[in-house]
């Protein structure tokens, strides 16, 4: 079996401020205790129970020809250092944060697809700071995602083409899911339009280990993985989710060259309220903000550089990451670019069926 990816991701935390988009991070920097409460497993969720889904359209509402299967970023941030490293799937604080994350990420796909998003036993951001990351996220969080996806394919998908989407810990888990499920079920992989997995790294080594998978090279290819990690031109620490050799595609031009895409070329960003939800327009849809974020691939560091945002105002840093690591903004900066690109890949996939 393919070795699961190594660094668990836990930086997409609940925003706490008002700006274009906000994401000040958790103050949790203390290593958790090693008591029994951390190792005792919460029950695995039953995905036949609709209450274990953040989003599950009814049969009558699943009217679009394609689906999105989505995994939200880290939302579990216990204030008690003795709390379990992995929470139960019904943890109230985690579920609340998941809803906010859904509004600023997964809704990019809402006009295009039926969105299925399971709740899952999730690792806390604290665990991401230490050497135990791999077995933590490769354990219960990945097990739940595999179980949810298998249930979705067998009972909810009805043979439709689908997009995989995630962010941060959700993208990390999705990397594990693809290496496991797609290898075992190639007929399912044929229905995958694309996997949008910003906030975690895809490396050449991962693709070598999983030769059936491939990284996106342009705006039009399908059955591909899209990934990037957004940072300012200068930071005082490396982005902890960027692995050596991380592959990047520009989410404005959908190219892999180092040519800069200007903020005026972007189709639009979104604003967030103080609770991390997308700010809505008069029609109740995420409000478009133009001219915010440019994008330049730095192949040397494997990052996506955004130079047009005032770091001091938007992302001054916190106890988890330094200023200018725009991890929380991977979707909000390029929200409408992602939506348009997904629509394009859907159209091409359907035309080629």
Word description of this protein:
This protein is an alpha/beta fold and 353 residues long. It has one domain. It has a six-stranded mixed sheet, with helices on both faces. A three-stranded mixed sheet has the order 7-11-10, with no helix packed on it. Strands 8-9 form a two-stranded antiparallel ribbon. It is globular and about 45 Å long.
Short synopsis of the structure:
By secondary structure, the chain is α/β, with parallel strands linked by helices.
**Low-pLDDT residue spans:** 1-39, 127-131
> What is the 3D form?
globular
How much of the sequence lies in strands comes to 5-15%
Alpha-beta content class = alpha/beta
Mean pLDDT: 87
Head-to-tail CA distance between termini: 31 Å
Q: Notable features of this structure?
A:
353 residues; alpha/beta; six-stranded mixed β-sheet; three-stranded mixed β-sheet; 9 helices; 11 strands; disordered N terminus
Task: Present the secondary structure layout.
Elements: H1 36-39, E1 53-55, E2 67-71, H2 92-104, E3 114-118, H3 133-137, H4 140-156, E4 162-166, H5 169-184, H6 186-189, E5 192-196, H7 204-209, E6 224-226, E7 230-231, E8 269-270, E9 288-289, E10 296-298, E11 303-305, H8 311-314, H9 335-351
Parallel strand pairs: 2-3, 2-4, 4-5, 5-6, 7-11
Antiparallel strand pairs: 1-3, 8-9, 10-11
Helix pairs in contact: 4-5
């Amino acid at each position: 079996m393919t070795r699961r990816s190594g660094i668990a991701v836990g930086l997409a935390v609940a925003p706490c401020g008002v700006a274009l988009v906000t994401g000040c991070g958790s103050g949790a920097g203390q290593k958790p205790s090693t008591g029994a409460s951390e190792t005792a497993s919460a029950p695995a969720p039953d995905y036949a129970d609709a209450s274990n889904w953040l989003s599950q359209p009814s049969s009558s509402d699943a009217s679009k020809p394609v689906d999105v299967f989505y995994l939200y970023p880290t939302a579990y941030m216990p204030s008690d250092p003795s709390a379990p490293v992995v929470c139960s799937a019904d943890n109230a604080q985690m579920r609340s944060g998941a809803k906010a994350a859904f509004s600023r990420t997964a809704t990019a796909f809402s006009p295009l697809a039926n969105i299925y998003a399971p709740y899952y036993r999730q690792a806390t951001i604290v665990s991401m700071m230490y050497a135990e990351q791999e077995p933590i996220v490769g354990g219960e969080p990945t097990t739940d995602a595999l179980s949810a996806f298998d249930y979705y394919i067998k009972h909810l998908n009805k043979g439709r083409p689908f997009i995989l989407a995630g962010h941060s810990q959700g993208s990390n888990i999705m990397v594990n899911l693809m290496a496991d499920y797609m290898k075992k079920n190639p007929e399912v992989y044929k229905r995958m339009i694309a996997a949008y997995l910003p906030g975690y790294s895809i490396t050449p080594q991962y693709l070598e280990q999983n030769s059936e998978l491939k990284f996106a090279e342009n705006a039009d290819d399908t059955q591909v993985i899209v990934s990037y990690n957004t940072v300012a031109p200068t930071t005082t620490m490396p982005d902890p989710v960027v692995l050596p050799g991380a592959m990047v595609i520009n989410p404005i031009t959908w190219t892999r060259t180092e040519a800069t895409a200007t903020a005026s070329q972007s189709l639009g960003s979104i604003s967030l309220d103080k609770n991390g939800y997308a700010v809505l327009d008069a029609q109740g849809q995420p409000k478009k903000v133009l001219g915010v974020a440019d994008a330049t691939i730095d192949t040397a560091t494997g990052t996506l550089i955004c130079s047009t945002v005032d770091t001091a105002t938007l992302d001054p840093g916190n106890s988890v990451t330094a200023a200018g690591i725009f991890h929380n903004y991977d979707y909000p900066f390029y929200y409408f670019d992602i939506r348009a690109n997904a629509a394009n890949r859907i159209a091409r996939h359907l035309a080629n069926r």
